[in-house]
Design brief:
heterodimer; A: alpha/beta; 4-stranded antiparallel β-sheet; B: 10 helices; 30% helix; 22% strand; globular
Chain lengths: 317, 328
């Protein structure tokens, strides 16, 4: 077990009141596994990742619960210790590579800086390692690419450089926020392929979020579906995709137009829109949109089941 | 079938840089010699990756851009070089819906005014007629009457897109150009908008040009699909045909690259992963523009640019060695 999150709650004090972005999220990440977090905007998936990375610095944020990385508690860890852990043991890949890289230094310089922040090796050795990393992420002519600035590279190449940087210290846990969303579909295919290969070689555990269930199917071993700040379903990829139990997961999968077979006359939809986090329904947060809601849904369903866990009164395992 | 919009040899070039910049003034061929016909009542899907020129083409067709070359004949009139004033009567018949529902609505105006604006500009209606029409439009796009007095920020992304659609159909146009209308929306909301667009098309007999990069959405909505790469059309044909048996290697790679939300462990996915990135349109490759990434490129592809040729099965393909041989 590399990461244990228990009853994590994150709220933000705002002028309109307290917004509960995450409401009691618990999950484990096992060594070397790929956990995908799926959900729509406002589901709390990004806040979950940022909490794990210790990157919620907003003074109005209230973080409760526990996040244990290899037995060390991350909630409340001093910023200095957290910074030491970040980059060395937990690395992050961001959605937009242009904002993750500084435009004023070369790719090579940035990777060298990252390496030397965590390891005491010479500049020359660090540079050689940077070129090696660029080669590993399949950047053509890595020794030349190391001398280039981010704006001189294409989106796909930039994302490769960001991945190279994330891998520079051989992290045990890689956290990725929509790693392929900003990329074109043919480039996305390359990056997904690369991430899978690197994961096999390095054996890092990966936690990533995406709204694209296709990407989820390609990359994840296990899938966790979030809705309005809670986990609604969690299981192996096969269970979630082939045998979803939560009405939300089912509706989400049904609302994607198919890529082959007959085209449906109409797409199945979920009525309404996700609830505002300022005024969440008292019971199950999906109930107002759920086609199968019944009397019990006025209470909050707990996430139950050990293998295939579902937070729904209908899904009795 | 009647042709509603006939597009012949349309090019759009942009000049970038100044004479003082490092490379001097340069020309980008954003859209390069595109010819196609949009049929009355159909949905033509226009797909391609970023930088392929699909949005530029859509804006040329909406005459938001002046075209550099070619001709545009819409509903029987040549609108290739009309100025803004001359375009006005045609604008009534051709409207546009934009990608970002947050950026395309004026935040300081109420929904009623946003929807009434095209009515006030183009039609001579009394205020009560305008209000009645606004109420009718709100109902048509699935919004409530009391939404009329609210401001755009009070709505979710999906609702804002409904407002954008209400504006576009207010004048009962013949054609609506939709530039990535659902890509800013969550999946569950996306399906609602796709269904709404289909309903409106049935009810109002609309013709759509649907520009998108999401292939599963395009397959769902389109009668025919046109695929662009680096400013040119590489393939155009019936939607089912394109997806079942793509003829251009790029179309095939594009479709195969889309990750599917199905569990397919053990089943080998015959996915084609293209090498490299889309080349810069500033300096497009010689010959076939796709040859630098094409898995089946041959010598001829490096030197000769293939023309868009119509096959007997109805589709047109710009490839020397199409994957599906022209029948007969």
């Amino acid at each position: 077990m590399i990461l244990q999150v228990r009853d994590l709650k994150v709220s933000f004090r705002t002028e309109q009141g307290v917004v509960r972005a995450i409401d009691g999220v618990s999950f484990d990440v096992r060594t070397g596994e790929v956990l995908g977090i799926a959900g729509e905007s406002g589901s709390g998936k990004t806040v979950t990742l940022l909490a794990v990375m210790g990157l919620i610095t907003d003074p109005n944020a209230i973080i409760e619960g526990s996040i244990q990385y290899r037995g060390r508690e991350l909630v409340g860890m001093p910023a200095r210790d957290m910074r030491d852990l970040r980059g060395r043991e937990i690395a992050m890949i961001f959605q937009d590579p242009m904002t993750a890289l500084t435009p004023v230094y070369t790719i090579g310089w940035q990777i060298v800086e990252q390496i030397r922040a965590h390891q005491s090796i010479s500049k020359k050795a660090a540079w050689a390692r940077a070129v090696e990393l660029l080669a590993e992420v399949n950047i053509p002519k890595p020794d030349e690419a190391a001398h280039r600035y981010p704006h001189q590279l294409s989106g796909g190449m930039r994302q490769r450089a960001v991945i190279a940087m994330a891998l520079s210290c051989n992290p045990a846990l890689l956290v990725a926020d929509e790693p392929t969303t900003a990329l074109d579909v043919t480039v996305q295919a390359q990056i997904l392929d690369l991430l899978r290969k690197l994961q096999k070689i390095h054996g890092s555990a990966i936690v990533f979020i995406t709204h694209d269930l296709g990407v989820m199917a390609e990359l994840a071993d296990r899938i966790m579906v979030m809705y309005a700040g809670r986990i609604v379903e969690r299981s192996d990829k096969a269970d979630i995709l082939a045998n979803p139990r939560h009405p939300y997961t089912r509706a989400l999968l049904d609302s994607i137009p198919p890529l082959d077979g007959p085209r449906p006359h109409r797409l199945r939809t979920i009525s309404g829109a996700p609830p505002s986090l300022l005024s969440l329904p008292a019971g199950c947060s999906f109930a107002p949109r759920c086609p199968q809601r019944f009397d019990a849904c006025v209470a909050k369903p707990a996430l139950t089941g050990s293998g295939h866990a579902t937070a729904c009164f209908l899904a009795v395992p | 079938m009647t042709v509603l919009y006939d597009i012949k040899g349309v090019s759009k070039r942009f000049s970038i840089g100044t004479r003082f910049s490092a490379q001097g003034r340069r020309t980008v061929h954003a859209v390069d010699d595109v010819s196609l016909s949009i049929m009355l009542g159909e949905t033509l899907g226009l797909v391609g990756e970023s930088g392929c020129g699909k949005s530029t083409l859509a804006r040329c067709l909406a005459r938001l851009y002046d075209i550099s070359d070619g001709s545009l004949v819409f509903d029987g009139s040549d609108i290739s070089h009309l100025n803004a004033r001359q375009m006005r009567p045609h604008r009534r018949k051709m409207q546009m819906v934009f990608q970002d529902p947050y950026a395309s609505l004026n935040p300081r105006r109420r929904v009623a005014d946003l929807i009434a604006e095209p009515l006030r500009i183009h039609l001579n209606l009394t205020e009560s007629q305008v209000q009645a029409r606004v109420a009718q439009l709100l109902e048509q796009v699935g919004l409530l009457p009391d939404h009329a007095q609210r401001y755009p920020h009070e709505f979710s992304g999906g609702q804002r897109q409904r407002i954008g659609i209400a504006r576009a159909i207010a004048l009962e146009p013949r054609m609506v150009i939709l530039d990535e209308p659902v890509s800013a929306l969550d999946v569950s909301v996306q399906a609602q908008i796709v269904n709404l667009l289909a309903d409106l098309q049935d009810r109002l007999k609309l013709t759509y040009l649907f520009v998108a990069h999401d292939l599963s959405v395009v397959r769902q909505v389109s009668t025919r699909i046109a695929v662009m790469y680096l400013g040119s059309l590489v393939e155009i044909g019936a939607a089912d045909q394109i997806f079942a048996a793509p003829a251009h290697p790029y179309t095939q790679a594009l479709i195969s690259a889309v990750p599917k939300p199905v569990y397919a462990d053990g089943v080998a996915r015959n996915r084609i992963i293209l090498a490299g990135d889309v080349p810069s349109p500033l300096n497009p490759p010689s010959g076939c523009r796709f040859h630098t990434r094409c898995p089946v490129a041959q010598q001829k592809c490096r030197t000769d640019r293939p023309a868009l040729v119509q096959h007997r099965d109805g589709r047109s393909v710009a490839c020397h060695y199409p994957l599906v041989a022209p029948p007969g």
